[in-house]
Amino acid sequence: MSKEVRDLIKTHLPDYSSSRFGNLYTDTSEFMNIDFSDVIQLGNEHFLVSKNEMERRFGLDDPKYWVKRCKRLEDKQPQILKLAFYEKFPMNIGPFKIECFRSPRKEARILELVKGDMRFMQGYSADDSAGNNVRVLDIIRGKRLDVWVHNIPVDHKTYFHEHFPDIFEKYIGACEAIKFLHDNDEKHGDIRRDHLWVEYDTGDYRWIDFDYAFELYENPFGLDVFGLGSILIYLVGKANITAQTMKDHNIDPGMLSSITPGDYSVVIGNRVVNLRKIYDYIPPSLNNILMHFSSSSSVFYESVDELMLDMNKSLKEIRNL
């Protein structure tokens, strides 16, 4: 197949400098075998693979072999191809037991639903020759929101008073985008802080990665709501605060004696949710929202509407500080 790939690349990319010409794939089932300089064909379009995308979490870089950074030969546009990958796993949050799984066609549905809505990543889907659903995604030129916030070079008090109100307002807008999905009976499925990006040119907040789905019979959209709460906790604290990282954030370790088991997150048990105990200038109205996501809470938000109602009230109070 190398000659076929060589001819394709020379036709569309005459300045291609690599001496390696890979294989042509019309069936992406064995995505682990598809690598640099291979070409993926979807219908009449051809995508030259440059690398696997990486999962960057907890300080580690793990290759995502089913997600390829590519260049579409026909127009030389960089794209991301998400190939069909299936997995299933359980998750426990407080009293809830949740079954999570990947669904390429669910992500394809959402891409069609949000076409032209720049609160979300953009793209389209196509089936390969074996019927695998492949999502062809536009690349967002931007940075993860959590990295953006982390890099603001000020102490927490300055951040909270001078930067957080605008971030909070835009985050409420991002929650409104998730409400749009729920209103259309769709779930994001994997809401976490590395799936919300800030676009460089516009400053807009944009959601990515919709291929997870979940089953939570007590509340069909509950996992999305918990995810929104976890991001909010990060934004309020300008970090995820744990007993081990207090010193890193210039927090008096002696303050740890005032933190009780009920002050930690119901989602990730080592993260402090009751941030007002650490930063006493956080308004009670905002801290009360955070405490809905604590292990001591007996009342959880059932919808994005409920969460947004409280956030908008708190934003108004913060603007008047």
Describe what this molecule looks like in 3D.
The protein has helices spanning 2-12, 104-113, 145-150, 156-183, 222-237, 284-291, 304-319, and strands spanning 24-25, 39-42, 45-57, 60-72, 77-82, 88-93, 96-102, 123-127, 133-137, 142-144, 196-199, 205-207, 212-215. With 321 residues, the protein is of the alpha+beta class. The chain folds into two domains: 2-85 and 102-137, 2-Layer Sandwich (Phosphorylase Kinase, domain 1), CATH 3.30.200.20; 142-319, Transferase(Phosphotransferase) domain 1 (Transferase(Phosphotransferase), domain 1, Orthogonal Bundle), CATH 1.10.510.10. The chain has a seven-stranded mixed β-sheet. A three-stranded antiparallel β-sheet has the order 6-7-13. Helix 4 (156-183) runs antiparallel to helix 5 (222-237) and helix 4 (156-183) runs antiparallel to helix 7 (304-319). It is elongated. It starts with a helix and ends with a helix.
Summarize the structure.
The chain contains seven helices and 13 strands. By secondary structure, it is of the alpha+beta class.
**Backbone structural class:** alpha+beta
- Beta percentage is 15-25%
How many individual helices? Answer: 7
Q: List low-confidence stretches.
A: none
CATH classification class of the largest domain: Mainly Alpha
Alpha carbon gyration radius: 22 Å
Gross geometry: elongated
The name CATH uses for the topology of the largest domain is: Transferase(Phosphotransferase), domain 1
Main sheet characteristics: 7 strands, mixed
Organism: Maridesulfovibrio salexigens (strain ATCC 14822 / DSM 2638 / NCIMB 8403 / VKM B-1763)
Protein name: Protein kinase domain-containing protein
InterPro entries: Kinase-like_dom_sf (IPR011009)
